[in-house]
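ARCHIVE CARD
Drawer: 12
Card no.: 0347
Subject: one protein chain, sequence and derived structure
Cross-reference: see card 0346
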Amino acid sequence: MNITITPKKLCGSVVVPPSKSMAHREIICASLAEGKSRIANISYSDDIIATIGCMRALGAYIKDNPDNIEVDGNREKMTSYLVLDCNESGSTLRFLLPVALVLNSGKNKFVGRGKLGKRPMEIYRDICGEQGIEYIDDSAQNPYNFLDLTVQGQLKSGDFYIDGGISSQFISGLLFALPMLDGDSRIFIEGNLQSVGYLDLTMSALKSYGIDIQKEGNVLYIKGNQKYLNHDSYVEGDYSQAAFFQVANHLGSRIDIIGLNKESLQGDKVITEFLQRLKDASPEENLVFDGGNCPDIIPVFALACCLRIGHTEIVNVSRLRIKECDRLTATVEELKKLGANIEEREDTIVIDGVYKLSGGEVDSHKDHRMAMTLAIAATVCDKQVKIKDAECVSKSYPDFFEVYAKAGGQVKEETV
């Protein structure tokens, strides 16, 4: 599906969808708890559907309701051949591989689409090798490099040395699994931890379900034989999705954004601070922003920087290259098509602001955050913007364009 947007500022109110990051974590914890839990304010994006499906495969009973789910957890050990479909969700894959190695001693076959088969997984590969766990990655053997990864064996407690510079998702995955093992464990985080806010979300979710994790410096201490406790929860609004409308407001729209928790631990909450710095800076001031802990908001924040007269650099963003697309290159390519003065370096986006953007045809690269960024860019263009493969927003925000239209956006769909 292609979308053509006629430039117009947005106005009205928007209730931001629930945090996808927190929903993943709540669903996993509830599925591992003894007893029934209810998770309110659920949005059934593709990624969340993938996590629900995988937890069902691992034995949890999950009932879908319109805006909540009821979960009856499972801690029973299995000896089965399981197919765990992660779709395109890196979170689902990395969170659940260690969990599967605790719950199921049979074969766990992880499958998925898009670029998931190319996401870095060496940390788990090395752990499996050290512990004698079978790890077979056949992703490169199929024509599209779709995920095809099989693991079999039992995860063992002990000491784990994890490079924090790749993704905090590996640490979160171990934190879900290790408390269920007989022995105690420690995780030593080496180097600079990326996306530290996401690890805070994991520890917050674990605590609410009765799991105790102690942190001293870069070491996490995990007691064994812990039990997840059932818990009712409400998923707070998602700052990574709110960022699109916050940037729209920064660029002249007038949207009342509803549903955000000002005390949230979400790392993407930093978008508020970033935009304030942009607003307060003089044209003569060279600004530098560190995107290492908030990669999901960088494309739309780069858009905001493109309309600020002055020089701006967004550093520490090489991790954007291993998202649904090479998001660093895609951000630069597509905003440049619209008239932005923006350049790509290995780990940096360099921007010299312009007064306005033009318009034209752009490509989402089948990446949900790129599609939404380009839709916000259309609000400040001189001419129409046509976005290719805009249906990819279903990964995280299925009704984004409906919400966009209700806020006054002029959207025309073209089925390809």
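Annotation on reverse: Residues 90-103 form the longest helix (14 residues). Residues 250 and 279 are 8 Å apart (CA to CA).
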